[in-house]
Amino acid sequence: xxxxxxxxxxxxxxxxxxxxxxxxxxxxxxxxxxxxxxxxxxxxxxxxxxxxxxxxxxxxxxxxxxxxxxxxxxxxxxxxxxxxxxxxxxxxxxxxxxxxxxxxxxxxxxxxxxxxxxxxxxxxxxxxxxxxxxxxxx
Length: 138
Description:
Number of helices: 4
Distance between the termini: 16 Å
Keywords: Membrane, Transmembrane, Transmembrane helix
Transmembrane segments: 12-34, 46-68, 89-108, 114-132
Shape: elongated
Radius of gyration: 18 Å
């Protein structure tokens, strides 16, 4: 096992968790969209439409999370600069999304300490990427 990057295991585990989270997000988003359709078909078209829009946004965010997870799994053991750059780029994307999520929850007064857990996987992903980057610099 020569030249294995230090962050390979962390990056791979976090990437797999991101993929699992993306699948759960897809399922919940589809349920949300279906529920919004039922609400729109009932008495409140505005609320139903809003629920559908939020479901679609969740699916888009789930796709970004899925891509990040796949890129992380694929490149976890690679020590070339291109692979590290790909992982860094996607890690920053999901980190920014998590920060925006926290900002939105602060604005609508729904913040709780558990909201900070949305930062956990993106931060661990970036730690794994940085460990891999350090491995190639040594």
